[in-house]
Amino acid sequence: AGGRSAVTAEGETVCPFCSVGCRVTLHLVDDRVVWAEGADGPANHGRLCVKGRFGFAYLRHEERLTTPLIRRADAPKDPSHGLRGAEVLSLFRPASWEEALAHAAEGFARLRDHHGPSALGVLGSAKGSNEDAYLLQKLARLGFGTPHIDHCTRLCASVPPLTEATGFAAVTAPIEEIAHSDVVLMVGSNPDMNHPVAASFLKGALRRSTKLILMDPHAQSLSRFASHHLPLAPGSDVALLSAMTRLVIAEGLYNKAFVAQRLEGFEALRARVEPFTLDVAARCSGLAPEVIAEAARLFAGARAAMTFWGMGASQHAFGADNIRAVIALALVCGQVGRPGAGLHPLRGQNNVQGSCDAGLLPNYLPGYRSLESAAERAAFDEMWDGHVPSAAGLTVVEMLDAARRGTIRGLYVVGGNPAMANPDLAATRAALASLDHLVVQDIFPTETTAFADVILPAAALAEREGTVTNTDRMVQRVKPALAPPGVARPDWLIVRDLAVRLGLPWEDVTVKTLFDEMASVVPALAGFKWSRLVRDSHARYPLDSADLGRNSLFADGFARGPRALIAPLDGPGADEMPDADYPFILMTGRLREHWHTGAMTRRAPVLEALSHEPRAHLHPDDLARLGIATGDTVEVRTRRGMVHLAARPDPAVRPGVVWMAMSFFEAAANELTINRLDPTTRVPEFKFCAAAVERCASP
Ligand code: SF4
């Protein structure tokens, strides 16, 4: 309306929709975002994907929460199905901040005093700022006194095996290092869907001369750029990677100097991979032995190779083993610690890295300082003038399981939506409905707010001050591009005010004091100051002596010591195999247009127009065999539940697999998924359970 001349304001922020961390300029007309364009940020250099370009309309969607809400006394908590939006709002009455915060605090204090601190849990989010995450974990540990603090990174954790190997909980080299790689290994990731701007830089490198080895059960848009696409059978990652490692060792192609000087666990690895001959791997993966061998030789022969992995590898009950097998191959080939070589778990949400650094985790204090260390706990006790719980707490899914058992009775959910994001939604809703006291802080009335006793309206990232850290260890400052709607407030401010009502003397806390305190206790942030970010707007950690931020880490030594560790595997396989009753494998994932549970992107009209309904993606041969035509309504059923949705023929999907996106509440994929956790990462199994597919009778 009126074009550029009608713009009344401009503001810059960081895109909230993935961990690439693109900087965006928002153009506003009368307080509404009318268009967004890529700013010259350190991660995107002017580029944006479709979500960054068209996703910001959610900021002024009519369903934004604008005032605190308290549940009506006569409003039931019905776990039989999900509610959202206006259906949720009808269960609540508006309240002042004073009344809502008093009600929220009184409920937590009552449960803490009657049932003990461990009756409380806190679920944060990787969508907020570093300051939000830091203050929330501090409130949980000091104000609530509970060890049960976690956040949605748990649903995609791909870092623990990297930490185990290197002692460092972040990428060893950023995405831009692919400019110096001659080979890229990509395992269980579809960046063209999930990290599109990163994929655009990758495609640039591939167009020049870099070779791509792509391990993914399905074809994807990057497949045509790959020199080797390995469409392995679901669940065969360890067998395939072990066979590649075995061949590299057997043919003497491994980096002998690196193995001798910088690696621990090589002989155990050699013994472990010995049974995985090419024939064994071929039988497990369905791939030709010579293709596996070619890919292994290409990777081992690379001058410099970057190794990426994503949620296709991690979101399994055996995800840690998948990643250990990836890391083992990269390490025996010495592909770390120099330009173009590095290990890179592609993170999911925008501030996964920062919220983990801040200690929003049940097993680590800020900066990954060990909760098991009495000295570390004592240091935090003294610094915080309180008492840090000594035991590790429960994780995201475990907290909901504890709620169902009645041992967790009060929950504070900040920016998360477990009633859409957790596996086995019927069980998750039952857990949420059973809580004595649930406070949910969010920007929209999500499926989780339907079970709240108090809803606290939060400001979106574009509406406040703070910092976020992207997948490449880049810390960026954000400033408010527009004001929050109604009386919505930044998360850290709500947390602070709740803490004050619980007796903590935090009245003077600000974004600046929070960032500076976090930087002082997180070793990787040594040298960072709020004033520096005000001056420079961004910096990558760790800062080097020239204060520029280093790209490729571990040219010599690792954070854990002189040698990286090749850890043994935990050994579990898939928990629920297909059978006569449930003959398909259900895999879930994401679409380019939508982000996670869809709470934001499905309220952006352009994105919703591009992708507005759930589909069951099946191979055309499976559809033909079942007598299902394109667009027919099918029932997808597992032992947990069923959903109805349209069938879509998709030759990219393997025969025997049904693939669904996780963002559609109308047919929520997590009604079907299974609550099984990886023994190391405690990540749930989102990509492998047995399912049945049937055509629904015509109405
Ligand atoms: Fe946003 Fe990620 Fe797209 Fe960049 S690549 S615009 S951060 S969704």
Report on the architecture of this protein.
- With 699 residues, this protein is of the alpha/beta class.
- It is 31% helix and 19% strand.
- The chain has three domains: 69-154 and 352-454 and 469-525, Rossmann fold, CATH 3.40.50; 160-345, Dimethylsulfoxide Reductase, domain 2; 584-695, Beta Barrel (Barwin-like endoglucanases).
- It is built from 24 helices and 30 strands.
- Strands 5-4-18-17-16-6-7 form a seven-stranded mixed β-sheet, with helices on both faces. The chain has a six-stranded mixed β-barrel with strand order 23-27-24-26-25-30. A five-stranded parallel β-sheet has the order 10-9-8-12-13.
- The radius of gyration is 24 Å and the shape is globular.
- 60% of the residues are buried.
- The structure holds iron/sulfur cluster.
- Iron/sulfur cluster is lined by residues 15, 17-18, 20-22, 44, 48-49, 51-52, 195-197.
Defining key terms:
binds iron/sulfur cluster, Rossmann fold, 31% helix, six-stranded mixed beta barrel, 699 residues, alpha/beta, 3 domains, Barwin-like endoglucanases, Dimethylsulfoxide Reductase, domain 2
Tell me the CATH topology of the largest domain. Answer: Rossmann fold
Q: Strand order of the main beta sheet, please?
A: 5-4-18-17-16-6-7
Q: Strand portion, in percent? A: 15-25%
Q: Which second-level CATH architecture of the largest domain applies?
A: 3-Layer(aba) Sandwich
Number of strands: 30
Helix coverage percent of residues?
Answer: 25-40%
The oligomeric state of the chains shown is: single chain
For the largest beta-sheet, the strand count, sense and barrel status come to:
7 strands, mixed
Silhouette: globular
Please, how many helices?
A: 24
**N- and C-termini, Cα separation:** 44 Å
SS-based class: alpha/beta
Overall tally of domains: 3
Mean pLDDT: 94
- Any idea what the radius of gyration is? 24 Å
The CATH class designation of the largest domain is Alpha Beta
List segments where confidence is low: pLDDT < 50 over at least 5 consecutive residues.
Answer: none
The distinct bound ligands, ions and cofactors come out as: iron/sulfur cluster
